[in-house]
Design brief:
The chain is an alpha/beta fold. It is built from 21 helices and nine strands. Pfam families: Methyltransf_11, TPR_1, TPR_16.
Length: 463
């Protein structure tokens, strides 16, 4: 899933305000610009915001939303300058402070983001998006007591704010210190879904929390009910199997992976930011650095399951060409916005590898093969896609114990034993196999341990 500048606020996270009607000419153009922007037609929106500023120089709403658009185009310095200019004109505009905070947050400037959200709340005490964002950045800064207080204030002030209930549910589960906290997360997820039935991630969260408490039958019932209402939805079908309510498939269904990551694309980097210890790309890059020649831009590299492109800056120094492939079109768009790749492709991984024999010197796959139970087909395809002497590097989640086994966990991801991993990599034709262990990330407040696998296709070494 290996999925550095954090880019692109989704429209769902942007605060919008209707244009002021003082001058009908520019107001009509501004309205058209905002509609184009909300429809993701950024070219049209940028042109129209420019027209507004020609009609009325320094119009604050045009400056504000043009700033949001610049950030969406990975021009965050310009975005900050534009929004700051708009705030000199309308200094008590809570939406602008909130959106400026979003930009700082997504660029990793957490203290600046916190200050913006607090300023938004000073200007608009009922700006619940800003309060929710404040709680989030406090959590990211590892200030859980402050974050809990902010989430609690949010739910006291806005108990019908569905997203707030969902975020509180995640917080309670991630930082649970006792059974009561998990119980409270269940109540929050139930309320979030009741308030907003479109938030299917609340149902997924509910099922996971129930399973965490050992209430397996209730968790399976959540997924069965969901599947009965939406029989073609791959998420409840997969999660029902993950909780033992159906036969374990050999790999996650393509529709499940695509659905999860397309819906997750806008907030993917933000969620990884929340898990500050996410390390899979760095761990793999460090392992590869011990076996690859000097980083002189001479290798053809495939980022297999590139996600939003978190591996790109780590791989680029080695790469003559750097290709990213991912099943999720939403993730590919984020990787394209980040930059660093020579080519980005939406494709199923095994089929892509099979279609590119002897094309690469390096294939790296950070947290992608955790959606494969049976690794044999994809590893055989990776072997074929490498040139002689080429290297494969990937991560898996640890399944404790001995024996040639894999299992689908309640998270919806697969875990593999060391014995299974060793056997399947060697069966695919690789030599010089090394399997280390490292912490890949934290989840629900606990360390997720992973196998860090290096394997070479036999032949002349690249050194």
């Amino acid at each position: 899933m290996g999925r550095g500048k954090r880019v692109v606020s989704s429209n769902a996270n942007v605060s919008w305000r209707a244009p002021a009607p003082a001058q009908p000419a520019y107001a009509v153009v501004l309205e058209r610009a905002m509609k184009a922007h909300q429809a993701h037609d950024l070219d049209t929106a940028e042109r129209l915001y420019g027209e507004v500023l020609e009609l009325r120089a320094a119009q604050p709403d045009a400056l504000h939303y043009l700033g949001v658009l610049m950030h969406q185009r990975d021009r965050s310095d310009e975005a900050v300058a534009l929004i700051n200019t708009s705030l000199k004109i309308t200094p008590r505009h809570p939406d602008a402070h909130n959106n400026l905070g979003n930009i700082h947050k997504e660029c990793g400037r957490l203290a600046e983001a916190e200050a913006c959200y607090r300023r938004a709340l000073e200007c608009g005490p009922t700006h619940y998006n800003a309060l929710c964002n404040l709680a989030f950045v406090l959590e990211v800064q590892e200030r859980p007591d402050d974050a809990f207080e902010a989430y609690g204030e949010l739910l006291r002030k806005a108990p019908t704010f569905a997203h707030g209930q969902y975020m509180m549910g995640l917080f309670l589960r991630n930082y649970a210190q006792n059974v009561e906290h998990i119980e409270q997360s269940i109540a929050c997820f139930r309320e979030a879904y009741r308030l907003d039935p479109r938030n299917l991630r609340a149902l997924e969260g509910l099922g996971i929390s129930l399973y965490t408490l050992g209430r397996h039958d209730e968790a399976r019932e959540v997924y069965r009910d969901w599947l009965e209402r939406e029989p073609h939805n791959p998420i409840p079908r997969h999660m029902l199997a993950a909780t033992g309510g159906a036969e374990t498939p050999p790999r996650a269904d393509e529709a499940y992976v695509r659905n999860v990551f397309d819906s997750f694309a806008d907030s993917f980097d933000e969620q990884l930011l929340k898990n500050l210890d996410y390390r899979a790309p760095e761990v793999l890059a460090e392992a590869l650095g011990k076996v690859l020649p000097a980083a002189n831009g001479s290798l053809d590299v495939l980022d297999a399951g590139c996600g939003t492109g978190l591996c790109a800056p780590l791989l680029r120094p080695h790469a003559r060409t750097l290709v990213g492939v991912d099943l999720s079109g939403g993730m590919i768009e984020k990787a394209r916005a980040r930059g660093g790749y020579d080519e980005l492709v939406v494709a199923e991984l095994t089929a892509y590898l099979q279609a590119h024999p002897s094309a690469y010197d390096v294939v790296i796959s950070a947290d992608t093969l955790i959606y494969f139970g049976d690794l044999a087909p994809v590893l055989e395809a990776a072997h074929g896609a490498l040139r002689q002497g080429g290297w494969l590097a990937f991560t898996l989640e640890v399944l404790e114990g001995e024996g040639d086994r894999y299992a689908l966990s309640s998270s919806g991801r697969y875990q593999h034993t060391r014995d299974h991993t060793q056997a399947v990599v060697e069966s695919a034709g690789f030599d010089r196999v090394t399997i280390g262990t490292d912490m890949l990330r934290k989840e629900h407040g606990k360390i997720v341990s992973g196998w860090v696998v290096l394997a070479r296709r036999g032949g002349n070494d690249m050194r």
